[in-house]
Design a protein that fits this description.
This protein is mainly α. The protein has helices spanning 3-9, 12-32, 47-66, 70-75, 77-94, 114-130, 144-160, 164-168, 173-179, 184-203, 215-235, 240-259, 267-288, 295-318, 321-330, 342-353, 365-368, 380-412, 417-441, 459-477, and strands at 105-107, 110-112. The chain is globular, with a radius of gyration of 26 Å.
Length: 484
């Protein structure tokens, strides 16, 4: 493509949205880090000035990316992926401990986090593998290599670098897998595991009012029983087997309640018996009708049972102490307003004090007195709530929503699988960052420390997000030159 054709093919609406978000984020970084002796937005001695420098550098790099042939990114995808895996492996050997994380490398006066660029590079590798003409998602076997490409950097970042937040972002690629043909049951299964974990941790120590047993275990078993009954209902035409299945479950619990009149019954055991009987009948019906594909439900329940039993061990042994404390505070198991819950409590105070219209630019008292830690990085959204109020906060979310919808629109108009898959990876990453960051600031999700794209202070995130977007814009600019 010629230089003029690249410029004419670029999606300028996306660039405008990018600039609006980045510049408004820059203003809020100035507001969050403002001191009374600070006079200039461009002063490099403060964070606002540094962020403007990062925005400028990111724009220059983004423009450079736009003039690189799109085919180049596909050609070097595997090589770049392999090289970056090596970079991720050696990062802890060069990094200093930063709040328990070994993911930041000091480059003189600058700090660089390779995990940020790993998302873009993984997206390129996935797009190359899944964008082949002959590739189709027909069964779980077709997803084994893509999941391996995804799990390798995520595992290194989580285990080797102790950077849980950046590793969890890789879950955003499930959106692309779903669009590429992965069954929606996989997403549903993932959400159900999250629900089981929450129930097991939140209610695991709560005793049942009758007999012995745990409320958490009972809820987990009931969720799994509901899965079995739900699939039986979906495959049945007359519902007879579904009624029989429900009868088995009701009779099992009824027998336990009656037995509890004379002696103490362990309802954890009763729930397990009900689940096993329901699963046995479900498996019998499936085999009898030769619906062998539904045996995946049996496998899911078996894995989920093991997962439920392992939840406590994972929580106590795998998660780090500060991560456990954050989850306990979020689930109401621990009240720690001066410790793990301090950030969220102060964030909610700041957002609430802004009310409908906000206190005004540079007039946020919570911000000026620095009650909220990380108020210009991970908790930058609370500055928006305090100074710009509900109107400003809603406006920021609406702009982000339009931006993400624009990315999905770009993804859908691509003429080749490679570009479309990469575009959905990009849309998923931005959506995940937005959802987790805002949910974290509002106290709806655990604090895992991931930035708000183009908004939070930081050179690594600004540059990596800009490059991620620039590659997409270049691929999109070439779409008219490609055949369907």
């Amino acid at each position: 493509m010629t230089r003029n054709s690249v410029i004419s093919g670029i999606d300028w609406w996306t660039i405008i949205l990018f600039l609006v978000i980045a510049l408004f984020g820059w203003l809020n970084i100035y507001g969050a880090s403002y001191t009374f002796d600070q006079t200039s937005l461009f002063d490099l001695s403060n964070r606002a000035g540094k962020q403007f420098l990062w925005i400028s550098v990111a724009c220059v790099l983004g423009i450079a990316v736009l003039f690189v042939e799109g085919r180049t990114y596909e050609v070097i995808a595997y090589l770049l992926y392999a090289f970056w895996i090596v970079v991720l492996l050696i990062t802890p050997l060069l990094a200093h401990n930063t709040k328990g994380s070994m993911s930041w490398i000091d480059l003189g006066p600058l700090k660089f986090q390779p995990a940020e660029l790993a998302k873009m590079i993984t997206a390129l590798a996935l797009a190359k593998y899944m964008g082949r003409y002959e590739y189709r998602v027909r069964s779980w076997r077709d997803l084994m290599v893509p999941f391996l490409l995804l799990a390798l950097p995520a595992g290194i970042i989580m285990v080797w670098q102790s950077e849980t937040g950046s590793a969890l972002v890789f879950a955003s690629f499930l959106i692309m897998f779903y669009r590429s043909g992965m069954s929606g049951y996989v997403l549903t299964g993932g959400l159900s595991f999250a629900l089981l974990f929450i129930c097991a941790i939140r209610f695991g120590e709560v005793a049942l009012p009758l007999g012995t047993g745990s409320v958490g275990v009972l809820i987990c078993y009931l969720v799994l029983i509901a899965v079995v009954v739900g699939f039986m209902w979906l495959q049945e035409q007359d519902g007879k087997n579904t009624l029989i299945l429900c009868g088995i479950i009701v009779l099992t619990y009824a027998a336990g309640l009656i037995a509890n009149i004379w002696f103490t019954v362990n309802f954890n055991l009763i729930s397990l018996v009900a689940l096993v009987l329901a699963l046995a009948y479900f498996t019998f019906v499936v085999l009898y009708r030769r619906h062998f594909s539904l045996l995946i439900v049996t496998a899911y329940v078996a894995v989920a049972l093991l997962f439920c039993e392992a939840c406590t061990m994972v929580f106590d042994k795998v998660l780090q102490p500060h991560q456990r404390t954050r989850i306990e505070v979020l689930l109401g198991l621990k009240d720690d307003p001066a410790g793990a819950g301090y950030n969220v409590n102060q964030s909610l105070i700041a957002i609430g004090s802004g009310q409908f219209t906000g206190k005004g630019f540079l007039k946020g008292t919570q911000t000026k007195l620095r009650f909220v830690p990380e108020q210009d990085t991970d908790f930058i959204f609370c500055t928006v709530g305090e100074e710009w109020g509900f109107i400003g906060s809603a406006g920021v979310l609406i702009v982000y929503l339009i931006f993400i919808l624009r990315l999905i629109f770009i993804a859908e108009r691509q003429r080749d699988n490679y570009s479309r898959i990469y575009a959905y990876c990009v849309a998923g990453i931005f959506f995940f960052h937005l959802t987790i960051n805002v949910g974290m600031v509002l106290g709806l999700l655990p604090v895992i420390g991931i930035p708000l794209p183009f908004f939070s202070y930081g050179g690594s995130s600004m540059i990596s997000f800009t490059l991620l977007l620039a590659v997409l814009l270049r691929l999109d600019a070439e779409r008219l030159n490609k055949l369907h």
